[in-house]
Amino acid sequence: MTERTARGLTESEAARRLAARDPYAPTTSRSYASIVRANVLTVFNLILAVAGAATLAFGEWQDALFLGVLFSNSAIGITQEIRAKRALDRLAALVAPTATVVRDGIARTAAVDEVVPGDLLRVQPGDQIVADGELVHADGIALDESILTGESRPVVRRTGAHVRSGSFVVEGAGELVVEAVGPESYAATITGEARAFRHPRSPLERAMNRLLLTLVAVIAPLGIVLGVALWERRTPLTEAVPTSVAAVVTLVPEGLILLASLTFAVAALRMAARGALVQQLNAVESLASVDVVCMDKTGTLTEPRLEVLRIVPARGVDRGEVEARVAEYAASAPIRNSTVDALAERFPAQAPAEPGANVPFSSRRRFGAVRRNGSWIVVGAPELFALGQLGDTAEREAESGRRVVALGTSRNGVSADRGLDDVPALGLAVLGERLRPDARATVEFFQRQGVELKILSGDRPATVAAVAADVGVVVGSPVDGTTLPESRAELAELLRETTVIGRISPEEKRRVVETLRDDGRYVAMIGDGVNDVPALKAARLAIAQGTGTQMAKSVADVVLVRGDFAAVPAMVEEGRKILRNLQRVTKLFVTKSVFASVLIVSVGLTPTAYPLLPRHLTLAATLTIGVPAFFLALAPSSGGYRIGGFLREVASFSVPAGTAAGLGVLSSYLFALNVIDLPLIEARTVATTVLVAVGLYLIVALEAEGRRRSAAVVGLSAVLAACYVLVLSVPFSREFFALAAPGPVILATALAGAAFAVGGLAITADTFLPGRR
Q: Which residue in the list 127, 296, 532, 557 is annotated as catalytic?
């Protein structure tokens, strides 16, 4: 590397190149185009659009009102998601990747969009490679390129090798000259695809997808059968189109997917206010499904910063010599971590010095070394050294929950591939971690919720166990990660009985998470370091601390921007509220589909005029499903939740409810039309009134829970009932919706039909009685 290359660009040259380049902003969340597509281009919107076009072409425009609902719902969803996107983008800026750029020979931190071709970048463990370039200096550097190539193992790169943006430094350090950055880089075209591929659907999303596929399977044959029946009867288009549209539109749960995505967006917005960056909208709901949480000790249960408590020299070794060697190592080590930073803070050297050679620290080797003045200074895990009488001290300090590192010197060669058995320890550095003030309360919350905790740490098992016990984790017998069984079955059995594993490598962390996952557990992983990344990527839900490495934050579904572990319980509560509310609201949408199926089979295939026009269904659905669903999906709630058997639970409510509503509407409509010879408009008024009354009753039966919530739900239903009465009372709206003024006969018939439906439900199960779910 030439002297000019080593100094990097000048600030003036970098500014000139930056001005000449087209500006770009790194993508931090969903694009505006993807938000619009997700809310507009859906199968159900296509069905409704075709039905609307047919209505406008062959029917009356009032019967195409559902198109207004379609547009307004999509607009609401887009607006809310854009609002959430902007809030998340602002929060993401706090944890966005940065680069260490060398200009005029001085290293400084720069935003990714400030990097230009020709810049010299320095990288170390945990850093993201933010630009394509050539390594001009490589010091034992190994890269995780799994996002680019799918290869899970780190790849060693040497001087002269080309590296690509999107990879991460796992160990070692290096410098590269930038060749391409931003849209011109290799990773720009695949980053979004790689992230989408890694994250599985949440349990609720998978359940929703199964439900929607089931409904599509029902809609298609019923629509075909109805169309054939109308064709065979030679029904005029002016009658066939409203009948078909009324049937098909009622079958479609048009607002269900919109409501789910809107709810996720609002939840992400609420979490942003708590300092949690939700990088995947389904992550909050997914956290509510977690039944085991794996976490690292450092940075999660304890503060990320360490402090040196004392130095313990070996017998016959001067304390000053140990402290001088510690200061030398801390000043010279090219790879920084919390231990090195703590040593450097306590024992600052007069001036940092470049080592003659070094072995970069890695969590796999558990030691690092620098060569100074002809000898090696080695710092690492105590058990790697010849401790002598220091062994008892190291054991005692570790058992008390301290972090202990040993320091030794050697004039023999030290390499990454050999052990340290022949390196005598000069002394020990005892470091302490402070428990997070919210750690105990958070652990207690998880335990109350029945969520199992697993503490996975690279520290000694006794050290990890002491910290875990301090925060209230039931430890049992801690396990040494170096002795984990190779058999997946034996490891699964061990994990059912243990909560603390120490001295565990990054690869073994991942294997633990994968074993739990394959054992049927829904696993979340909380971490902040490079050594946590394999496990974060293997977990169903990855949570990274905002104080962690760029690599950890990049692969996480949720980033705790302020490193606030106490934000996690709030996320769990938010997720469980979403689960409870969406499960209940889904029942209302599916009830409408079952109701439509009953009407199609019973009256749609006969010559009898269809009991409801599309405009009647739009009015009833708005009052009994659309408006209440938006309120109830975001309202506070309590009680149980369950993802398993989602379709079965929805069907157990929706099938009898939809059938009863259909029979109530059908019986009162046929009675009004054929027995007491009411005109068609009055008979349809009876049918619409029954549908609204039964729908509002179902809201009360489904949502009434506790005194305050019951009062709110009853109040909401009363307001919606008043809105329907207002529609019937005002001549203009009554004429617009093709309804008749409600006389005594209409009201009595509608009341009888509603009573028939509600009474049948009450006899069927206690589920349909308010407050008895």
A: 296
